[in-house]
Specification:
Elements lengths: L2 E8 L10 E8 L4 E5 L6 H8 L7 E6 L9 H8 L2 E4 L11 H6 L8 H9 L4 H10 L15 H14 L4 E5 L7 H17 L3 E5 L3 H7 L2 E6 L2 E7 L5 H7 L16 H9 L1
This protein binds adenosine-5'-triphosphate.
Adenosine-5'-triphosphate binds next to helix 1.
Keywords: ATP-binding, Cell membrane, Membrane, Nucleotide-binding, Translocase, Transport
GO molecular function: ATP binding
Protein name: Phosphonate ABC transporter ATP-binding protein
């Protein structure tokens, strides 16, 4: 079992704030692949970072690979986190770094300090970085600077790190949000093939519901911090999807009569 959540509640700030995730029950077996879907603000990112042991739950029980990460020593929790790869939607890549260095950073936990330092000047295994980039359609970017990549290229550069990691679970937040349809399919196919090849668990949040339905056997629908359904895709109906996203369309903003539109426009810039 990769993840087991029983009646889990998560808040963003300790103390008085309202829970972001309420009483979640979720079991994810090792090697399972599932898509997390739901409207903006539903709690998908919070759930992924909770699974990655980046958020300490406020209540309920939570185990990762059979262990409660928050009952472990700091060192043991650190070791457990090394088995989890969290790919955030906006990857925090050092801007002036070369792509090759950014991708090889996935190997840092396994290198001595000297090897890591030397790799900054002469990349230790550029072929491995290149192979990983090729699988995400970025083979020509090996020596590009990270801050000269497009948003979608940065996202895939971060995912290429995943291929060089030794993680047993991939927690991936909206990996295709900045990609065209062909690259989106390639990216999901690469993630899923890698997870299957090493029997890693894949939990992937997606805004593209049709992609989630096409690519994942299990769909978890989240809304207002609660699991609305957790079903094999064949049992997820259009009506369930419509209910999940109901009332989520953006309403046109109506200016209050006493406030001139110009003032609102200026404020909106900041
Ligand atoms: N750092 C934070 N501090 C306080 N509240 C937060 C923080 N991050 C997110 N939230 C709140 O938690 C709720 C869930 O946010 P989360 O980012 O997990 O949702 P999401 O489903 O991933 O949304 P999206 O699809 O827009 O990325 C939202 O109400 C959000 O405002």
């Amino acid at each position: 079992m990769s993840f087991k959540l029983d009646n889990l509640t998560v808040r963003h700030l300790a103390g008085g704030t309202a829970p972001v995730l309420h009483g979640l029950d979720l079991n994810v077996e090792q090697g399972e692949q599932l898509a997390l879907i739901g409207p903006s603000g539903a709690g998908k990112t919070t759930l992924l970072s909770t699974l990655a042991c980046a958020h300490r739950p406020a209540a309920g029980s939570f185990t990762v690979f059979g262990e409660d990460p928050w009952a472990l020593s700091h060192a043991a929790r650190h070791a457990l986190r090394a088995r989890l790869f969290l790919a955030p939607q906006t990857p925090p890549l050092p801007p002036r770094q070369r792509v090759v260095t950014a991708v090889l950073a996935a190997r840092l936990p396994h290198w001595s300090v000297w090897k890591a330092l030397a790799s900054l000047f002469r990349p230790a295994d550029p072929d491995a970085a290149h192979d990983a980039l090729v699988r995400f359609g970025l083979g020509d970017k090996l020596y590009a600077r990270v801050d000269r990549l497009s948003g979608g290229e940065r996202q895939r550069c971060s995912l290429a790190r995943l291929l060089l990691s030794t993680a047993d679970a991939f927690l991936v937040d909206e990996p295709i949000s900045a990609l065209d349809p062909a690259l989106a399919r390639l990216t999901l196919a690469t993630l899923q093939a890698e997870a299957a090849a090493r029997n890693a668990t894949l939990v992937c949040s997606l805004h593209q519901v049709e992609m989630a339905r096409a690519h994942f056997d299990r769909l978890v629908g989240l809304r207002d911090g609660r699991i609305v359904f957790d079903l094999p895709r064949a049992r997820v109906t259009d009506a369930m999807i419509a209910a999940l996203y109901e009332n989520e369309t953006v309403l046109p903003h109506v200016h209050p009569p006493h406030e001139p539109p110009e003032r609102i426009a200026v404020g909106a810039c900041f």
